[in-house]
Design goal:
Elements lengths: L4 E6 L3 H12 L1 H8 L3 E7 L15 E3 L2 H5 L6 E4 L6 H12 L4 E3 L2 H17 L4 E2 L10 H8 L5 E7 L2 H13 L3 H10 L8 H4 L2 H15 L9 E2 L7 H10 L1 E12 L2 E12 L11 E8 L3 E8 L3 H16 L26 E10 L5 H11 L4 E6 L17 E7 L2 E2 H13 L3 E10 L4
Parallel strand pairs: 1-2, 1-4, 2-3, 4-5, 5-6, 8-10, 10-17
Antiparallel strand pairs: 7-9, 7-11, 9-10, 11-12, 13-15, 13-16, 13-17, 14-15
The structure holds L-homoserine.
């Protein structure tokens, strides 16, 4: 039998500890499937004394992840430290420069330095694997990089953040507060070390940037992503969405348009009947439109220790079998420059919630401003304040919640119309605007 694959793991947080346990638990199956034993030979973490519920005896300890990454006693370096620079970046670069294969779950690192790291891996005759970086346990990188190699992809979109999907699902199904749901997501090990990465959409944007490159053979450009998180979503929006036949999901969408590639992350109203609307809790889903295959939808757990460790271990198995695939599906120097479509040119339907002063002519004025921008309204509904817990006099001039939905229009027209409405003193507070995506 070929010699053992010696795995060095840096970072023993939720995923790292799960990985160490999983490799131990799957030892026999891994040997059978890879044709050689796979074992963790060395680890590195910040605090040696912390009890992680894993047996680290028999594993060498390194305080410095760069030393672990370049150790002659490690065959594959697994980076689970996180962060787009610092020790994660330094250790991954060091391993690749030493010709050692790397497995990482670090989406921020890939989104920022992916093309450079791909080139570094190629220059040193080694490989960089990152299945766990996107959509947790879902094998979407393998699917896009390998299985769909025979397709031109026109669009990839999905629910790419387990924490946000968990929060939105519980807010909708249990009427809970945003902050309580977030605390539970943190307790369950779904959220990032800094949860603003989850709830402000940055984590989704990092993942989308990687998928965009795989879909379109372009260089990664995470800076070009339009990004809005879920922190402004209220129970009023969730309820209104339900009544209009939608559910609210944080989507990442990348698609080819006539003016370039559109990459956007934002809360989205999706039809209740669509496949994506039924993805609840920590589940993620990725839909890929290929010209030969049609639409492929992958669903699975997007976060959590074991689910993410499962994806990391799949990559380690590839290394054990001697597989090497270009990091971004094609040689790094052949990736096309990224051509961004401007968000102002995005076309779609919009949901708008306004607090309108109860004065005669206010509705008419709003409708006129929309018409001036050539925006066709699909519906306009004045909500009953008492249902939102507001029991003040129905005919006082306190603002009334009003919900508008539009037919397809442009982002620029909606933004201009809202700016004009704000300037006319007919509404109180900031408007809420959520994009509507027509999905099957
Ligand atoms: N914080 C991430 C999520 C973990 O909630 O999806 C997986 O990347």
């Amino acid at each position: 039998m070929t010699k053992d694959l010696r795995v060095g793991v840096a970072g023993l947080g939720t995923v790292g500890a799960s990985l160490v346990r999983l490799i131990e638990r799957k030892s026999n199956a891994l040997t059978a499937r890879c044709g050689r034993p796979v074992r963790v030979s060395a680890v590195s973490a910040r605090d040696r004394t912390r009890d992680r519920g894993v047996d680290l005896s028999g594993m060498a300890w390194f305080d410095d992840p760069v030393a672990l990454a370049t150790s002659a006693d490690v065959d594959v370096y697994v980076e689970l430290i996180g962060g787009e620079d610092g020790p994660a970046e330094a250790s991954v670069r060091a391993a690749l420069a030493a010709g050692k294969p790397v497995v990482t779950a670090n989406k921020a690192l890939l989104a920022r330095h992916g093309v450079e790291l791909a080139a570094l891996a190629e220059a040193n005759g080694t490989a960089l694997f990152y299945e766990a970086a996107v959509a947790g346990g879902i094998p979407v990188i393998k699917t896009m990089r390998e299985a769909l190699a025979g397709n031109e992809i026109s669009r990839v979109y999905g629910i790419l953040n387990g924490t946000c999907n968990y929060i939105l699902t519980r807010m909708e199904q249990e009427g809970l507060d945003f902050s309580d749901c977030l605390a539970d997501a943190q307790r369950l090990g779904y959220a990032e070390a800094d949860p603003t990465f989850d709830i402000e959409g940055f984590d989704t944007a990092h993942k989308l940037a990687i998928l965009t490159s795989l879909a379109f053979g372009s260089r990664i450009d995470s800076e070009a992503i339009y990004c809005e998180g879920i922190s402004s979503i209220t129970q009023a929006d969730i309820e209104a969405a339900g009544e209009l036949g939608y559910r609210i999901k944080l989507l990442g969408v990348a698609q080819r348009t006539d003016s370039g590639i559109e990459q956007r992350v934002h809360p989205t109203m999706v039809p209740k009947t669509s496949a994506i609307a039924r993805i609840d809790g920590v589940l993620n889903a990725v839909a890929i439109d290929g010209d030969a295959v049609g639409e492929v939808v992958l669903v699975g757990p997007g976060a959590g220790g074991d689910a993410t460790a499962s994806a990391v271990l799949g990559d380690i198995a590839d290394v054990a079998r001697g597989h090497a695939i270009p990091t971004l599906g094609m040689p790094a120097d052949t990736l096309a420059p990224y051509e961004a479509a401007r968000m102002r040119r995005h076309e779609g339907g919009y949901y708008i919630r306004l607090s309108v002063y109860d004065r005669s002519g206010a509705f008419a004025e709003i409708a006129r401003i929309m018409a001036d921008e050539d925006i066709s309204l699909e519906s306009i509904v004045q909500r009953d304040r008492s249902r939102a817990g507001d029991l003040s006099e129905p005919h006082s001039d306190a603002p009334q919640p009003v919900i508008l939905t539009t037919y397809e229009t442009t982002e620029a027209a909606v933004k201009r119309a809202l700016a004009t409405i704000m300037a006319r003193n007919v509404v109180a507070g900031d408007p809420q605007m959520i994009r509507i995506e027509k999905l099957r």
